[in-house]
Amino acid sequence: MQVLVPYTGRDPKSRLSALLSTPERRQFSLAMLRDVVEAVREAGGTPELLAPDPVVTADDPVANGGSADVLDGVSETVDDRPLTVAVNAALDRLDRGQASELAVVMADLALATPTALRRLFAGGGDVAIAPGRGGGTNALVIRDPAFSVDYHGASVRDHREIAATAGLSADVVDSMRLATDVDEPTDLVEVLLHGRGRAREWLVDAGFEIDADDDGRVGITRS
Amino acid sequence: MQVLVPYTGRDPKSRLSALLSTPERRQFSLAMLRDVVEAVREAGGTPELLAPDPVVTADDPVANGGSADVLDGVSETVDDRPLTVAVNAALDRLDRGQASELAVVMADLALATPTALRRLFAGGGDVAIAPGRGGGTNALVIRDPAFSVDYHGASVRDHREIAATAGLSADVVDSMRLATDVDEPTDLVEVLLHGRGRAREWLVDAGFEIDADDDGRVGITRS
User: Fold this and answer.
1) Quick one: pLDDT band at residue B138, thresholds 50, 70, 90?
2) Residues in CB range of B21: below 8 A, 6 or more apart
3) What value of ipTM does the predicted structure carry?
4) pLDDT tens digits for B66-113?
5) Which helix (H) or strand (E) holds B4?
6) Residue A220 half-sphere exposure, CB side, CA atoms within 13 Å?
7) Nearest CA to CA, how far is A104 from chain B (Å)?
């Protein structure tokens, strides 16, 4: 299955700017992207970046990340229109019969594992939806050209309605790993506790650790 | 399977006090408890309340909630010690051979469905752990008396370590529905978007709705 992975290097993870500098946010976002690309591949998918600027081919030591990088050989579609427009343009492949199914997996799902993605890919509905925390849509599989995306607002609700209006069946994938997109400081707690890849390692190297002193949900500190 | 459902009616859901009055927090917490008890039963479990004060038998119109209530006939263990102590005391049944497995499912899992709970109950490990948002442990299945709970701090990490130290296998259940305990205002968004029972209905009746105007994660408003 072709798996689109939307990513932007333009002011990435801006809601983490209280904790991370601009170069750090770029490094961290690329660590998450690499984790997602690797998990997609291990789950049997063919990852394909969808980005407003070239990522893989950029002459950028941060982006290139050394030899034998997981991003080597990953194809890219460069489209600098808003996310919804760019994804819907890519979904035209279903209309044109160039693919029978297509997935969209966000680049900031730092907890995504091959097991969680296999559950997403294996569903049989016309559409499979993995909700994100706070009303978002973190991952989709689309098997019918009548479906289109709309990432603005409470998109998970909108995507269920778009499917229903088009008479399509929609499976909802119940996964904490796929529900956890990393946008806000509290999300870093989840990466430290449950992550297994580069993103967690990056945070640990940057000095972040769990602060479990508080009652209620735990926080993070940076040394 | 016997399924302990810890609940407290003492200042319940205190972190929602900016949005809900004290009587409202009590009503809402009981709506969630009823949803959880019903889901446990539909998943094949035998729910049993674990509470510092009697819930079911209380002469309290809010608690009793009318005729043919889902809480009718549910057994209760009244134990006013801290949660960790009370749960470990209940786990003594495994030691005494009175049960071969025991589950603990928190009363504020307003998104829990029978399907999600069946996945929890079906795991084969000595321990099955459903992590909660922010480092908590929202649900457990325990099949070995060598395990004990510790709900303070980053309990999901502690529970993995307690299992490992005792040489027990631990399955982690990847479920957004079980990961969503309802403690904070942003959690109400999840109940409105993904809930299917009394808790969602209570919020709708109380005038809460999704506020999707913002970019990023959506919020709630109250009319």
Assistant:
1) very high
2) none
3) 0.94
4) 567 999 999 999 999 999 999 999 999 999 999 999 999 999 999 999
5) strand B2-6
6) 23
7) 18
**Yes or no, beta carbons of A135 and B218 under 8 Å apart:** yes
- Is the per-residue pLDDT at B160 higher than 60? yes
CA distance A112 to A135: 18
Query: How far does B78 lie from chain A, in Å, by closest CA?
Result: 23
Whether A176 contacts B175, CB under 8 Å: yes
Q: Which of A68, A78, A79, A6 is nearest to A37 (CA)?
A: A6
Going from the C-alpha of A82 to that of each of A40, A50, A69, A87, B104, the distances in angstroms are: 23, 11, 28, 9, 45
Chain A residues in contact with chain B using a Cβ-Cβ cutoff of 8 Å: 15, 113, 115-116, 131, 133-136, 153-154, 156-157, 174-179, 183-184, 186, 189-190, 193-194, 210, 212-213, 216-218
| A135 closest CB neighbour out of B154, B179, B189 | B189
CB contact under 8 A, B135 and A217: yes
Q: Of the candidates A79, A69, A57, which has an alpha carbon nearest to the alpha carbon of residue A5?
A: A79
pLDDT at A60: 56
Residue listed under structure tokens 């549910």 = B74
For every residue of B15-64, DSSP letters joined together read GGTTTS-HHHHHHHHHHHHHHHHHHHHHTT-EEEEEESS-STTSS-HHHH
Best of A176, A178, A204, A215 to substitute, by most chain B Cβ atoms within 10 angstroms, is: A176
Chain A residue numbers with beta carbons less than 8 Å from the beta carbon of B218 are 134-135, 153-154
C-alpha B78/C-alpha B88 separation (Å) is 14
- CA dist A39 and A18 (Å) reads 29
